[in-house]
Predict the 3D structure of the following.
Amino acid sequence: MSPVDRLREALPDAARDVRLNLQAVLQGGALTEGQRWGVAVASAAAARQPALLSAVLAEARSRGLDSAAEDGLAAAALMAMNNVYYRFRHMVGKPGYTEMPARLRMGRLAQPATSRADLELFSLAASAINGCEACVRTHEDVVVKGGIGEEAVHDAVRIAAVIHAAAVALEAGEVAGGHEAVSAA
């Protein structure tokens, strides 16, 4: 049984739909396997649930998708920074802030382990989880202009939504005492 399958089985009964959706979104669709698992890694990292991230990373690496996994982790880390910064600028709405340079390093965007479009796709998923409208719009535009179609973008956001739901369900199950923490081993 794969790490993600073990994790799915550990989801509480209240999250039966999440269990089924987790299986469905990680198979097929408009994304390549690398894109699918890069999005899953970025989403799991953004969702901040250690057992989930461990399982998704182990699964991606077992499939030989180390570059996608690394870019997924990089995207989540960059978006943890950028989503806070750009969400602030968007929420405040003062021109003075939007005219100031961010001065935040984002060198990984220029040198991804996969491709620029894929890293942007992973960033889009993390930004959707983090709730940064400005970042979601920007990444979606770059991704589509980079040749990734809207159906693939839709699939990526579906993965992000289900991964986030799995993180919530795992945390709720742990708090409710119904399940012990899950390991990827």
